[in-house]
Amino acid sequence: MDDDTGTAPLQQPEPETEPQKPAPMGRGFYLVMGLIGVLVFLIIFFNLPAAETAALVTLTHTDWMLMSYADSSGTVVAVQNGSLVSAQFGTGGQVTGSAGCNQYHASYFIMGDSMNITGLASTMMYCPAPGVMALESNCLYDLQRVSLYRIHGTELHLYDATGKPLLLFAPAGS
Known about the structure:
Elements: H1 27-60, E1 63-70, E2 76-78, E3 86-89, E4 94-98, E5 103-111, E6 114-122, H2 132-145, E7 148-152, E8 155-159, E9 165-171
Antiparallel strand pairs: 1-2, 1-3, 1-9, 3-4, 4-5, 5-6, 7-8, 8-9
């Protein structure tokens, strides 16, 4: 209210304005997007060695028990209950374990996801339990054919040079 006249002052209408247009994306925007892309690439590229290191630590710090293997025909077969085939990959490039009846040891070499197992030797006892000698023979043969390894979750998968599965291990006690 206006003090002198007792009437409300007239309000002038606001001038009509055009909607604001977004600022054009200039060089700064593209520079920032490029830098983000480079950062994502660097994070992925430089994190791969960390993933390989984590896989190697899991490989060498786990006692592995065989879950399945490729038999002489190449068919993947589950290990029978009670058959204890194990592998322990040492940090010094030695793998040791039980082949079901006999103990074995060999050297292994890893580069990236490739694995070569050489110089396999085992004790030579006869085990009369049904199927144990066939299991042992297949497992020792498969170990010598390993070319690739992968750790999926908690499982160790060993493959031949063509990518066919040979041996599947899980942590002992799981």
